[in-house]
Design goal:
Blueprint lengths: L1 E3 L1 H7 L10 H8 L3 H8 L8 H11 L7 E3 L4
Helix pairs in contact: 2-3
């Protein structure tokens, strides 16, 4: 199973509510919908497009493997 590591990146970069950044504001900065961001952050079923993964990598200035991880399905 492929999982998003988005919440870890957001916290690491101090882009969460504790640091005064709302989900809507962050989504706007990233160029994605706030609903999609909410689902990706909270582990809800969501299938991001390659375009969205590209936007996330561009925003965080990171590689795909920094956003996605593979976990064996048990």
């Amino acid at each position: 199973m492929v999982r998003l590591k988005l919440e870890k990146l957001i916290k690491k970069r101090k882009l969460d509510k504790r640091h005064g950044v709302s989900n809507r504001a962050l989504a706007k900065q990233m160029g994605v919908s706030h609903v999609a961001l909410y689902k990706m952050r909270n582990g809800w079923p969501y299938n991001p497009t390659l375009e969205m993964i590209d936007k996330l990598c561009g925003f965080f200035k990171c590689k795909v493997e920094d956003i996605l991880e593979y976990q064996k399905f048990l």
